[in-house]
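Write out a record, focusing on structure:
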Amino acid sequence: MQVTNDQWTPLFESLKAKISAEARHELLFKMINDIRFITQMNFGNDGLARPETWQILSKEYAWEKKKGNRTPNLMLKGDLIKGFRTSVDSNSATLTNDVTYADEHQFGVSYKNLPARPFYPINKDGSLTEFAAERQEQIVREHFQG
């Protein structure tokens, strides 16, 4: 699964002429790893920066499939949280999840009656959640102050 957010491209286009490739790589590394941290924290009970509240499992499903436990499977097994991968170079950073069913949980699957439980801190319009955007802006500020 790969979710792309391009709101930072204008910033990096202007930085290409102003800072070295090594400095851009360092900044992107900090930014993508923070997004990874936030995303992984979204698997907690409340989520750190989910774009929407997760629908709770129905009582019927929980009793039938999980002996009454209403915790979503994506939180129980741990495979999704371990499946995140980052890649960084001097011009881009990517966060992906290589678990085959990641998309199903992120976006939901109506024919499986599986509601969306988005874990990436990205709103439906492609923008970062407020929490994630504020942290990213702080990373950029600190990078240029240090």
